[in-house]
Amino acid sequence: MIVPLIVACEILFWVFLGTGLAARYLLRRPTLGAVLLVGAPLVDVILLVATTIDLSGGAVASSSHGLAAAYIGFSVAFGHSIIRWADARFAHRFADGAAPTKPPRHGAARAIREWREFGKAVVAWAIACGLLLAAIAMVGEPSRTAALSDWIRALTAVLGIWGVIALSYTVFPARAKVAERRT
Fold first, then answer.
1. Helix, strand, coil percentages, rounded to 5, for the chain
2. 135: helix, coil or strand?
3. How many secondary structure helices (H) and strands (E) does the chain include?
4. How do residues 90-148 score in pLDDT, each as one tens digit?
5. Could you tell me the pTM of the whole model?
6. Helices (H), 57-171
């Protein structure tokens, strides 16, 4: 039940995002656009409630429940950035907005960007692990929540790798290619 709900929530996120931006820029209805854009994060609430009901109803926690927590964490931490990214491109394409800026590719600016993204990953990890720990506590039976503990370990490993990648851009900053320096 949870995996189809996660897929539906992801689809709904993009539907709210697309219709909100279309209302804002194509229909010139900024208030309607804002209301629709607010619907995007509300999808996470639906997923959280459904997962809680499923687990409190006696279901054995599965990797699907862990995926739901990870999805919610990612959505909360990165959702605003995704909406801002899409908004800039939509405004440029349909409302004569400024061209979106490209992320830095070299040097300190790239390292700063990588650390900023790592910070969002830490927030996503904290939210997901908090939800997983809350679900483990709510169920109260380790035999029914082993999959959730596995998710905490996996998310921690992913966060560690992400941190190493961010650190690598600080220790070994990317340099512009010779052709890029000349222009």
1. 85, 0, 15
2. helix
3. 6, 0
4. 999 999 999 999 999 999 999 999 999 999 999 999 999 999 999 999 999 888 899 99
5. 0.88
6. 63-94, 107-139, 146-171
Structure tokens, 87: 């908004």
For residue 113 the two structure tokens come to 């960007």
Instruction: Decide if 55 contacts 65 (C-beta within 8 A).
Output: yes
Distance CA 89, CA 99 (A): 7
Distances in Å between the Cα of 171 and the Cα atoms of 93, 137, 158, 164 are 38, 40, 20, 10
Q: What is the dihedral of CA 121, 123, 128, 129, to 10 degrees?
A: 100
- What is 108-131 written as a DSSP string? HHHHHHHHHHHHHHHHHHHHHHHH
**Domain-by-domain residue ranges, the chain?**
2-182
The full length of the chain comes to: 183
Are the C-beta atoms of residues 51 and 136 closer than 8 Å to each other? no
Residue type, 146: A
Per-residue pLDDT of 39-84, as tens digits, reads 988 999 999 999 999 998 888 899 999 999 999 999 999 999 999 9
Tokens of 145: 């929540």
Q: Which residue has the tokens 């320096």?
A: 181
| Residue written as token pair 């998710």 | 151
Map tokens 């209301």 to a residue: 35
Considering Cα of 34, then 44, then 14, then 76, what sign does the dihedral take?
positive
